[in-house]
Amino acid sequence: MPTASATSPETDSGRPGRPRATLCRGCRRSSNCSPHTLPLTVDLGFYRQCLHLPPVPNEYSACAATRLLPGFSSTPLPRTGWTVTASDQETTGENGAAANVLDGNASTHWHSEWSGTAVPLPHSITIDMHKTDTVAALKYLPRTSSSNGRIGRFEIHASPDGTNWGAAVATGTWADNALEKTTGFTPVATRFIRLTAITEAGHGGPGPAPPNSI
Fold this sequence. Notes:
Layout: E1 3-6, E2 10-11, E3 19-26, E4 36-43, E5 50-53, E6 62-65, E7 83-86, E8 123-142, E9 153-159, E10 170-173, E11 181-197, E12 211-213
């Protein structure tokens, strides 16, 4: 049965500064069958993680691990002096203030406004670090007390001044579970980071967006 292996991450000459793993399939059915490189290069970002490819009968399975690039760390930035604003927040029906995402308390959360007339998606929350720093990832911890309002499809933007945002530095869809999510992207020197919830996980329609922390 053919098997797959992953080389050690290396710098992709086509994308300077980005590590990669090249998946190779080796054939064991005959002695004259040489290994060859599959047309698949996986960009692994800047953090240690494991990329699992589901096994395919008579084809391949693999797991490739990353390494940290020199000069980058997975250690969270210190939050001293940070402030946060949101497109909307719930402070009447519950303590769902946007500021809760920075308090380090997993039992509090930011909740979109729902009392009276609920504000529909999308919902966004913006962090002002009050200084320029290099950011290469965002971590999101969903509310631990309920599955209500977990973020599904999302966008992450960066801005040097809170006015000019440009294209998203990352987009994607988070799984519908309570695990902390980490999304990496090309390092950017920025002061403002904005997370926008486009859909609610598991529902895909209007709904609240309550992160415990960002």
